[in-house]
């Protein structure tokens, strides 16, 4: 373990050195540009970015934030600093552009240097998408943002650096636009977020650095991936997590579950498979896994099953702790393993719920599968891990034993980030599922 951490720290040090090299490359490229370099093109991109900003701000104002940003105090502070400094930077950039005020330009640069850039660096570890590509892409973009802001601070009257900083500041806005467009068009379904942010970078980087920008960007990312694999030397599970897309899906994609059932032929012995209830299907699978008919599945069998489903290692460790001796009963298997294959598409609602308490009750009832009136801490841990929260932050948020039970009142009053975001995603996914249904039962 110590050796693994040492290799990881070494990797961070090397990436920091590469980032300094990127700063040198930025300087080498930009010092050759005239003050009016791509002025018209930059102004057009800035105007389009500002227009899209209105929609992105409206979206975030009307939608629940992802729990990873708000469940812990330090995350809340960071995201509020990020939003506040970002708004100041956006507004002061426009004021400085129209007035030519060096004082306002310096305020815009300080908003980036002291607020937006540090908070962006802090959030990089929990970025969505394939970490192999996304972490390096974020570091490259944030570093270019810092580089432009530092130059603007030194030259607060420079329109060249003002436009450069504003463009890089708006990469996330372009990401949201492409994320919506690709999702609407049904493109890049398996890599939607990664493709969106990369497309944004590949459009805006050349506006700042010129035609060589994308080669520098791809080289930076490729170097970081190669260094990670050679220095950290991750095991097969960590490597899989490093390169796989991490999404905002509420629960594990049901396609993984269904594919496993079909591929392994677990239900091949059932002649009336299509008439079995969900619990009966689960029991047949459990009986196949329980080779010695002991009524239990041992920890090794469970870990093998979870690895086939490519479940996050953090969940595997927690389930091992939860099952204590490693012996999993059918009831535990059905509630905590089999139901990993469920998604919000299984939830049926008559319509949208407006009242917060009713939303919380709806989510509570969904998690309280046995109608006991309580939710197990383990169920919440599973949900947070599947939402992409770091393992240590799940522990910090749920500072409790694995067998702790939460009543509805505790859930409603203390866990708004969970039920608010969960309900919103269930509503979205339910609409999508309803829209995807064929208009006639025989159309498929």
UniProtKB/TrEMBL annotation:
Provide this UniProt record's keywords sorted from A to Z: Calcium, Membrane, Transmembrane, Transmembrane helix
> Taking every annotated instance into account, which residue ranges of this chain make up the domain EF-hand?
277-312, 355-390
User: Is Transmembrane set as a keyword in this record?
Assistant: yes
Kindly list the residue ranges recorded as spanning the membrane: 9-27, 39-59, 79-97, 103-121, 133-153, 159-179
Instruction: List, alphabetically, the InterPro entries matched.
Output: EF-hand-dom_pair, EF_Hand_1_Ca_BS, EF_hand_dom
SUPFAM superfamilies, A to Z: EF-hand
- Stretches of the chain forming a coiled coil according to its record: none
What is the recorded name of this protein?
A: EF-hand domain-containing protein
- On the tree of life, the source organism's domain of life is Eukaryota
Signal peptide span per the entry?
A: none
Q: Pfam families per the record?
A: EF-hand_5
User: Which GO molecular-function terms appear in the entry?
Assistant: calcium ion binding
- Show the PROSITE patterns listed in the entry: EF_HAND_1, EF_HAND_2
